[in-house]
Amino acid sequence: MHCRPSVHALALADLTRAGYDSGLGERGCRSLVRLQRPFIHIQSPPGDWYDKPKWFEYPDSGGGGGGHEQLFEDGVALMEQYETTSDLDDLATAVSTLRRAVELTPHNYPDMASRLANLGTSLWSRFEQTGDHQDIAEAISAEQRALELTPDGHPEMAKRLANLGTSLWDRFKRTGDVQDIAEAISLQHRALELMPEGHPAMAHTLANLGASLYCRFERTSDLQDLAEAISAGQRALELTPYGHPGMAVRLGNLGNSIRARFKHTGDLQDIAEAISLQHRALELMPEGHPAMAHTLANLGASLYRRFERTTDLQDLAEAISAGQRALELTPDGHPGMAVRLGNLGDSIRARFKHTGDLQDIAEAISMERRAVDLLEGQPDMATALTNLGMSLRSRFNRTGDLEDLAEAISAQRRGLELTTEGHPDMAWQLAGLGSSLWSRFERTGDVQALAEAISADQRALELTPEGHPVMAKRLAGLGSSLWSRFERTGDLQDLAEAISAEQRALELTPEGHPEMAERLAGLGTSHWSRFEHTGDLQDLAGAISAKQRALELTPDGHPDMVWQLANLGTSLWSRFKHTGNLQDLTEAISAQQRALDLTPEGHPDMALQLANLGVSLWSRFERTGDLQDLAEAISAEQRALEITPEGHSNMALRLANLAYSFKTRFGSTRDIYDFTEALSKYRNSANYAFGPPDIRLQAATRWAGLLEEYNPDSPDILTAFDTVIHLTTLMTTLYQVLENRYSRLVDTSGVALQAASAAFALERVDKALEWLEQGRCLVWRQLTNLRTPLDDLRRHDGHLADRFLELSKRLEGAGSVRIAARSAMSMSEKTSLEDQARDHLRSASEWDDLLAEIRATPGFERFLEPSPWYSILPYLPEAGHGIIVNVDTRRCDAIALSTGRSTPLHIPLPSFSLAKCNQYRKDLTNHLQAHDYRERGSTVATAPERGDEFRGVRKLNHATVQDILRGLWKDLVKPIIQALGIANIPASSTEAAPRIWWCPTGPLSFLPIHAAGIYTSAGTECLLDYAVSSYTPTIAALTDRISSARPIQKAVSGLFMTCQPNAPGRSHIPETTTEVQSIYDLARMEGMRAQRFDGSAITSATCLDSMERFSIIHLACHAYQNATNPLESRFLFHKGSLDLLSILQRNLKHADLAFLSACQTGTGSEKLPDEAVHLAAGMLAAGYRRVVATMWAIRDEHAPAVATDFYQYLLDHRDPADGSGFDGTHSARALHHATQQLRIRLGNDSDESLLAWIPYVHFGH
After folding, report:
1. How many other CB atoms sit within 10 Å of the CB of residue 822?
2. C-alpha dist (Å) from residue 182 to 73, 246, 653
3. How many beta carbons lie within 10 A of that of residue 288, not counting itself?
4. What is the mean pLDDT of the chain?
5. A Pfam family for this UniProt protein (predicted)?
6. CA-wise closest residue to 430 among 446, 397, 453, 407
7. Are 477 and 2 in contact (CB under 8 A)?
């Protein structure tokens, strides 16, 4: 599993520091032991060596003189000589002689089969020594021909079957072709069937059959093959008399098979028996025995396997000793050399993990590199590459050298590419690659690497059969990866899944298992993380308990002791923060100091231990005021920073923590050095490109705050807030699905308003405007960017434009995926989900690269970059004003942008305040509940943002609706009207009232600015008497509509409408039918192109089709707003629903006006007031130039008349030159007129009447 960092980043409860570090600790290296395995399990060949794996057939005596007979006899004699001398020259001459004999032998010669068989055996023998593929191919060909010439019942049939089986087995070992091993096993089974009980070759053939079955098991993991292999090996051993020369090899081979069973069962009795058999085999072998190296190598593999399970260092020492002896006995060029090098490298790497001796890991890497070189083009190449990758990653974990990690990942990827689907090593290789990718993420913060790691871990787990001993390791590894992603994204689903996987891993880990401590600590860390996010003390108690137990199970001197101590220290520190118990903090510091003392100089975790000790010492200073603790904290954090390598993902966090310590000391000493250092470190943290955006944003905000507090006139405040706004945009990237983008913005809500407030204080209205435009409505701007017109780009480079368009569509679809609960998913479903997430990240990365490529093109340097404030001035609407109102804790201000003005006008609002704004909003909400203004029918139709629904309050002790509107008028709207010099327009005047586009911020977004005024029985003074109001999410959203305006084609000019009075599960709204019928009759009477669908006559698909064919749409229905994922917001029909995503995916290039006669379609999210999370903004993003929406519920009985008055006004004021066509150019004035007609009909300005006409609002141009 991944070794977790001992501690990790968090925002402390009082938000005073960035928090604990998440560097790569020894828990930060996934347990290498869990991933390693012997290079291969049987050294070549595992067959019956000393007993001659093949039988040689001798010529009959008295065969006669020269020619082919003599050649054959000479070849046989040379083979006998080779068996005695092992001289390869003798073998080469024998092969040549036997080949010539076969060539000269007549085809119908009665003994041809014997000569072919012996030629095959001699070629096989040479192949065994040289590995020449040509030899084994020729051997198999000769033996197949020999078998074809052998009649049924021939006494040599069994031998020839067995010999051909051995050759096919050998070729399988070199090529991995399962057809060869299947045929080998079949031939050996046939040979055994032909042998009567007591046949002298029975034991030999059983032994070789066992070896073949074992090999197939290695390839397929079929436990039935392994069981038959062990059974055959045991029978062979029973038939082998004491003192038989084949006894030693048969003991060794049976040991190999039983070791394999241990790998699948975890039964220590199996591995003990395997080692015992291999020891006995060695005892029976005289010095110089040809199988000595092979048996030593396998004994080393078995000892290593037991060490993995028990961590008995004596086993590891013996494994290394056996492996070294095996290597010494292996001549250069031997086919088994690579395997033995790899095995020994594995063992030495394991020793490195326990000793930390860099000489060990260097030696292991050297051996594994040699193994890779020797195995080029062979099936075991993949295994060799994976093991090399593990060793390189081990060295990276000790030295932090990113080159080692890059090479490790490259080797493991290559190994995986060489592994065929279905190969039993696939899961092991995936897990190894996942470990290395996880390490890259931990070191660099590369989220793409983490996504790949999780995907690899899940695939590895999916390929691991239930009950397999390695299942616990795979679960723990996946848990670590998911925990890391939670730490980066805060997604509690990931944490829940991590805890579930780790709990399962712990349940599958038997008592006494060497990895029990690691698994306890990992689970404890996950519980601690959940406590930090939920405050559940039960999680904290579980975390401390698990970590204390883990520490108890870790022996003194064990390398894991460091991170066990550090992990426990973290949890004790957390408990101190929660309870204030100094004893916990004292124990935390003691544990962290011990962890630091045990960390060797030069270890990459040294910085981590120092950084976390610094946090705890700072916490003690905060509690006791002891400046010595603060000095030690700064010293530790400075040292941590000095040894943190450039490019490390935790550099930003360490800079921010040190900055806070300096700031704290400055508060006590007023030493200007501390102040300067705090500013410097915050600035460096904020600008550190490799740090997580949230840490950098926190640092930038504190940098700006420190300047505002102690040097409010400093121009550096502007630089700091520039950085803040830039980092705010990085919090919501295309790498995330929409739902996560919105959830992350909750933590940064109000940052742009704070920045603008600082700019106003410095009299930089231009900066305030820039930041309010760039730091708000971030997600809608991203969606708009994905749908940006490409005419200019296409004219310059059509290929670039096509790539941009294709990638935009891909990202729009990926980003809108709904986050589903994963707890009930199967592993294959989770894997598929992770693959989708990985593809999403890859597409987002491609998008970044493509943007860089486009911006490198002359003329496109600012492609999709936020426009400077002055670039929007030429596109402001004529005869009107765009007004942004900034509401912040410290001050409130307005910015007015007007055609003809070259600069923005700053209008301070000293009488308005955030407190007033919040109170007005609270009072208005209470009135809406009391008067049951929740939806057009009778039930709430929004996705609640709180756990309970509002209860109506009938008796109110709050400000009246009239009070709220009066306050908005006196303190907010009237000062703006006066500053702009807008005069009251008498009712009798024919002069057109000027337009105002309101762009409110913060909680002001929920208040009806357009209705501000004094409403009394004695008379009124209100905004309606001065101007016609509209709203816009940002000024850029308005100017974009103006700059991209195109004439509406006559073919699409017209009105499409639908009424849906009976949506399932919603209240009955009968007047929608009246509303649509009235509009339809009016349109037909005026000769307009119109179409209507009622109730079940329409589906979402037909509605979308109609939206493409008509410039204006009118939807009279229920609506559902999803504040978490706005693209899931929808209009509810009798048959199904129409969601915003589906609308956005259509090419609505002729969209002009959308009238949304539904409830709360212009109401945003309380948590994200500056993101315009409502259907009206969504329809603007879909392409509509203007939208009529509602701030709260409208009365069903009023809606038909409002709609009819609205369209009548549009028709009365259309351009006569348009004939039967019309558009929404006058839609704001039409709505202004229609609502005033409703006000007149209501007959008074009581709260009830005001709430009836105020909710209608206009968005856009």
Report:
1. 16
2. 34, 25, 58
3. 7
4. 85
5. CHAT
6. 453
7. yes
Give the integer Cα–Cα distance in Å for 1142 and 943.
19
DSSP states along 60-115: PTT--SSHHHHHHHHHHHHHHHHHHH--HHHHHHHHHHHHHHHHHS-TT-TTHHHH
Q: From CA 919, how far away is CA 913, in angstroms rounded? A: 10
Q: Which amino acid is at 1096?
A: S
* Single pTM value for the model: 0.71
Confidence class for position 1156, pLDDT limits 50, 70, 90: very high
Strand pairing partners for 1014?
1021
Tell me if 1223 sits within 8 A of 1046, measured CB to CB: no
The encoded tokens of residue 531 equal 């406590």
Residue by residue, DSSP assigns 847-903 as HHHHHHHHHTSTT-TTTTSPPPGGGGGGGSPTTEEEEEEEE-SS-EEEEEEETT-SS
Rounded Cα gap, residues 396 and 414, in angstroms: 19
The rounded distance, in Å, linking the Cα atoms of 1029 and 995 is: 6
Would you say 412 and 433 are in contact if contact means Cβ atoms under 8 Å apart? yes
Torsion on CA atoms 1031, 1033, 1034, 1037, rounded to nearest 10: -90
From edge to edge, which strands make up the β-sheet containing 892-898? Answer: 905-908, 892-898, 880-887, 995-1000, 1028-1031, 1256-1260, 1186-1190, 1153-1157, 1112-1116, 1055-1059, 1090-1094
Is residue 630 over pLDDT 60?
yes
Q: What's the rounded Cα separation, in Å, for the pair 1191 and 1160?
A: 5
In sequence order, the β-bridge partners of residue 1056 are 1091, 1113
> What is the rounded CA–CA span in Å between residue 297 and residue 291?
10
Query: In angstroms, rounded to a whole number, what is the distance separating the alpha carbons of residues 595 and 658?
Result: 21
C-alpha distances (whole Å) from 685 to each of 21, 752, 1232 are 14, 20, 51
What's the pLDDT score for residue 142?
93
Q: What SS3 state is found at 229?
A: helix
| Cα dihedral: 1195, 1198, 1200, 1205 (round 10) | -130
Residues 705-742: pLDDT tens digits? Answer: 999 999 999 999 999 999 998 888 776 654 455 555 55
- Tokens at residue 382, please? 């993949």
SS3 1163: coil
- DSSP code for 969: I
The reported pLDDT for the residue numbered 786 is 58
User: Which phi and psi angles does 692 have, rounded to 5°?
Assistant: -65, 140
Tens of pLDDT, residue by residue over 1228-1255, are: 999 999 999 999 999 999 999 999 999 9
Q: Which amino acid is it at 362?
A: A
The pLDDT tens digits of the residues spanning 1012-1052 come to: 999 988 889 999 999 999 999 999 889 888 877 788 888 89
Neighbours of 341 (CB within 10 A): 27
Peptide bond into 1047 cis (omega under 30): no
Distance (Å, whole) CA 112 – CA 146: 7
1259 sits in which H/E element: strand 1256-1260
Which residues does 1210 contact at the CB level (< 8 Å), separation at least 6? 1222, 1224, 1226, 1227, 1230
Residue 966, both tokens: 């009066």
Distance of CA 1181 to the CA centre of its chain: 28
- Angle, helices 157-175/202-220, rounded to nearest 10 degrees: 30
Question: Across the beta sheet with 1130-1132, what order do the strands follow?
Answer: 1118-1120, 1130-1132, 1137-1139
* Cα–chain center distance at 516: 28
The half-sphere exposure of 1175 on its side-chain side, counting CA atoms within 13 A, is 34
> Bridge-partner residues for 887, per DSSP?
892
Please, is 649 exposed, middle or buried when counting C-beta atoms within 10 Å of its C-beta (0-12, 13-18, 19+)?
buried
